[in-house]
Amino acid sequence: MITLQNVSGGYLNKSIVKNISFTIEKGHFYALIGPNGSGKTTLSKLITGVLPLQSGSILILDKSLKQYSSIQRAEMMAVLSQEASVEFDFSVEEIVMLGRYPHQKGFFKTISNQDKQIVKDVMEKTYVYQYRKKLFKQLSGGEKQRVLLAKALAQEPKILILDEPTNHLDMRHTLEMLQHLKDYQKQHDLTILAILHDLNIASLFSDKIGLLHHGHLVETGDLSLLQKEEKLQEVYEVAIKTSFHPVIAKPQISLIPKKQKPLHTSLDHTMNTTKNYIHIYFPKPLRTISNAVLGEGLYWSRNFCNFHVPYNYNCSNPKQDIQNWLQQANISSYDTVGMMTAVILKDKSVIRENIEGVEILSIITAGVGNAVDITHDHRDSSNKIGTVNIMVFLDAHLTDGALVNSIQSVTEAKTKAFYDLNIKDHNTQTIATGTSTDSTLIASTQHGELTPYAGSGTSLGKAIGKVVYNGLIEAIKNYEKRKKI
Fold first, then answer.
1. Is the CB of residue 117 less than 8 Å from the CB of residue 124?
2. What is the four-CA torsion angle of 9, 10, 14, 15, rounded to 10 degrees?
């Protein structure tokens, strides 16, 4: 659809972009990214013919750009730029109608019924129809941008060039505009070239990406380009971390500001144990991974709560219940991991050790009334109260992979404790591997040297296993003693 071959160009014989080659396939959404001054807008003006080429060639539909007249380019390409200035007092409808100009016939360019219907349709799709009689200059920046998008779509282009199309738009209208463009692209086989500063937005909506820096095309390709942390950091000169969107399979980028102070340097905390809950509080948030009722998955937390519930508690909406209990206890639910158990909370075990220079704190409540052997069939008891809740706090700096390793190390230690204590599944009379709804938490201060592994083959994994094993045996023995009373 669009092919650039060794393209160079700029202003007053000065090359801003140099020796650039890439192809945009028909019907694709191609995003140009790069820092300010990298040549993105200049390149878009070369593609539209606003600026002349200094060298190289641009092909549109296998035909040289030079062979198209200005009216032919206008019929084929529409442009939405960052500027939203209009010199005259035009109404919104009049502005959008300008997009039909290349298609209007005759010397006086009369407006047809088809023109009117197309203008109405695009104004409705871009949410500006209600402003159609309003003067353009009276609109907000975001409203103006949506009007100009409507004007571009009214042109019924085969190619749409967007220079920061979400400029002045809030989050809602950014998503609505780009989602509409994506839908329009698929329905009309539209080819889109978009200059985008927001890399996460580029990831969500583009098919291919080109990275510009100092007028050169550093790389072009699929969305995996946005996972190349070192390259992006070199180009943008800022520390970043890539991860995946939590809902869809698209990479997302987080900026990392320069740290003024370490997040935390020890496991200093306060702990309050009442009849109803255990609350552990850290002054600064810890990086966490858990399968807790609240704050599950990867998280940042400073409050850690384990709530006592009766054995006949109805688990219909446990997360809402925990949020209600947190509110009653005046504890924030924003940065909190919340668990629940039927075990008497004062029977908890608390172990704090320093093993090979790593400080480890475990807080465990445990009971084995609903112990299960995961390798045997048994009745579904997922609606029962979990009786083994394990919280492990580490003064360490763990990667996400190491956090997962840590969960594995905890699980292995738990299974070993169940084996050594001869705890059995009541249905199968085989050695249990855990209880039906155990909860496990790993929380790390993210202080010190980065640790990529914490499995059972590492010293850290073995240290976690030792502390959890000893803590779980102590907690189960406390539980067994209470049963005999």
1. no
2. -40
Q: Taking the CA atoms of 197, 203, 207 and 208 in sequence, report the sign of the dihedral they define.
A: positive
Three-state DSSP state, 310: coil
Residue ending a domain, among 255, 287, 303, is 255
- Read off the tokens for 144: 């103006």
How would you classify the pairing of strands 208-213 and 29-33? parallel
What burial letters (b/e) apply to 98-123, b meaning 16+ CB within 10 Å?
ebbbbbeeeeeeeeeeebeebbeebb
Domain co-membership, 284 together with 401: yes
Picking from 418, 458, 466, 467, the residue whose alpha carbon sits closest to that of residue 438 is: 418
Q: Which of 479, 355, 470, 344 is nearest to 410 (CA)?
A: 470
Asked whether residue 16 is assigned to any structural domain, the reply reads yes
Structure tokens belonging to residue 371: 């112990």
Q: 264 lies in a domain? A: no
Give the H or E element holding residue 46: helix 40-48
217 to each of 8, 34, 38, 82, 220, how far by Cα in Å? 11, 9, 9, 22, 7
Total count of domains within the chain: 2
The total number of residues shown for the chain amounts to 485
Contact 279/304 with Cβ under 8 angstroms? Answer: yes
pLDDT of residue 362: 97
Domain boundary among the residues 197, 225, 255 is at 255
- Alpha-carbon distance of 110 to 132, in angstroms, equals 19
Does residue 27 sit in helix, strand or coil?
A: coil
CATH classification at residue 90: 3.40.50.300
Would 134 be classed as within a structural domain?
yes
Question: Domain span at residue 215?
Answer: 2-255
Same domain, 341 and 414: yes
For 31-80, write each residue's pLDDT tens digit: 999 999 999 999 999 999 999 999 999 999 989 999 998 888 888 999 88
Angle between helices 141-154 and 113-125 (to 10 degrees): 140
**pLDDT band of 446, cuts 50, 70, 90:** very high
CA angle 405, 410, 413 (to 5 degrees): 125
Q: Nearest-5° angle of CA 180, CA 99, CA 29?
A: 35
Closest CA to 309 of 207, 217, 389: 389
Per-residue pLDDT reduced to its tens digit, 293-335: 999 999 999 999 999 998 888 778 999 999 999 999 999 999 9
Q: Are residues 244 and 340 in the same domain?
A: no
408 within domain boundaries: yes
